[in-house]
Amino acid sequence: MKINREEVLRVAQLAHLELAPEEVETYRGQLDEILAYIGKLQELDVSGVEPMTQMRPQAAGGPHQGSGMAAGAEGATAAAGAEHELRDDVVVPCNVAEAVLAEAPDAAKPFFRVPKVIDR
Amino acid sequence: MSAAPAWTIGSVRDALLAKRTSARELAKDFYAQIERRNPQINAFLALCPERAYAQADRVDAAIAKGQPLGPLAGVPVAIKDVISTEGVRTTCGSKILENYTPPYDATAVERLETAGAVILGKTNCDEFAMGSSNENSAYGPVRNPVALDRVPGGSSGGSAAAVAAGLSVVALGTDTGGSIRQPGAYCGVPALMPTYGRVSRYGLIAFASSLDRIGPFATNIADAAAVMSVIAGHDSNDSTSAAVDVPDYAAEMEQSLNGLRIGVPEDYFGAGLDPELKAKIQTGIALLENLGCKRVPLKMPHTDYAIATYYIVATAEASSNLARYDGVRYGLRVQGDTLMDMYRRTRERGFGPEVKRRIMLGTYALSSGYYDAYYLRAQKVRALIARDFASAFEKVDAILTPTAPTPAFKLGEKTADPLEMYLADIYTVTGSLAGVPGISVPCGKTAAGLPIGMQIFASHFGEARILQLARAFEKAGGFSI
């Protein structure tokens, strides 16, 4: 067994999910089956492999050439830092507060209202 | 499936310029069709006739004045309900966003409208795009217009079904692990997942940020190319969109195939692939050989690990992205005595079972004590899968595979077993993890009349190559092989 009842409850708590008692066993069984399948990743030797932490595809040899890809997984990851394009840090107007608050379940302009958090 | 002749972007333009119809009349005809067929198919979750007719009138006014028309002028389109539309309810197929109306348009939507497209409404999908059959929608499943007892695929099932049933000329979907290509295959329409970063995701409600992409469904390759020309390209509102030039897809797709090397990886043709599909895909590949392509056998040894990798990476990202649904800023709120009670009750009531399952799986994979064994390892295997593609593209110009291991299955057939459902994406998640573009094109039907999809991958930003192969395949009759 990969995951027990207590772990399901712990994960649900971390994820801010409230599970009905009957859901706990259903999810435990399903997560157990999925994790057992995912266990196949342990078969592979990944020593020396850099994790692919982000996706930054690079165009190869010009903007729309179909053949030959310069950047493999390592290339794409290694190049990521250098290739990152940063926009200019300029202030632009962003008058959206009204529209955003209009979607709030409970707003008291200019705030979102929630149950009391701090007891005095 | 529809009785009326299928409209294309080209035939709409011709009809408008020849004044055989108006954009308003056309929109009206499509709404009439939707009213007739949608109760059965459930492809649309919301319609926006006011917005559609206002846009149609603008197009008609431009025609009357002889002004130049945008490339999609008057073309009725449908938008998957995970893509934001200003003033039009956007639910992501979830109860938690049942009453959510975005205050802005996604860039892809804005570009379609600027090009003259008429947005008819929002299409059904699996909740937060999580699913392979559209049965995870909180608003009921979509039925496959080709066979009503079957699923349309997922998660973009509504967009695929709408185009296949003639309820919109083209549609936008999103693909995270196969959610454009697999429903395209099940419903028998071309469906393109662009390169990661090719199309702006500003306004796309996030599921898994290192995987999510927006792309088109169409009835033919020229229409898919036309939509791509409109939606592709850098957007300053999306820092993950690429500053790479957009080619003239309509011109590029007509290039000769002579001498192109097409890779056929044996790893995609093993046990688990329906023999009837295998035979058709082989016939499809032979047709491309007849058109001048050179077939190259390939090995992509990490293919078999893609589903396991995907269900760690995607769920980990989802658990983080979906943390925002807490009842504070938008969507559903279920009151509680404390803030924490409110969060938990809102999420318990608002999310469906598959979304909760994936949030829990992702939270588990990221949690202390399991991070190295699951998440970090999955990221390393993802690098190996990307490397499989990189080495393949040193030898070939494109990779051909089946889109899915089976044709569309029956509603309810796989809902009891989440893992079995996940395996429907076994041939599509690889390209998602590697960031490369891929299309599913129709490749004949089974003896029972169910559509079969053939998948074509190209290297990063190789959409033109994909469209070129797909277009030649279409012209040579490959769709009905």
Keywords:
heterodimer; A: 120 residues; mainly alpha; Histone, subunit A; two-stranded antiparallel sheet; 38% helix; flat; B: 481 residues; alpha/beta; Amidase signature (AS) enzymes; D-Maltodextrin-Binding Protein, domain 2; 3 domains; six-stranded mixed β-sheet; five-stranded mixed β-sheet; 16 helices; globular
As for the CATH topology of the largest domain in chain B, it is: Amidase signature (AS) enzymes
Fraction of residues in H or I helices of chain B: 25-40%
Which CATH top level class of one domain in chain A fits? Mainly Alpha
What low-confidence regions of chain A span 5 or more consecutive residues with pLDDT below 50?
62-82
- What is the count of β-strands of chain B? 11
Structural class of chain B: alpha/beta
* Strand residue percentage of chain A: under 5%
Main beta-sheet strand count, sense and barrel state of chain A? 2 strands, antiparallel
Number of strands of chain A: 2
Q: Which structural class best describes the helix and strand composition of chain A?
A: mainly alpha
Give the termini distance of chain B in whole angstroms. 19 Å
**Strand order, biggest sheet of chain B?**
5-10-11-9-7-8
**Oligomerization category of the chains in this entry:** heterodimer
Number of helices of chain A: 4
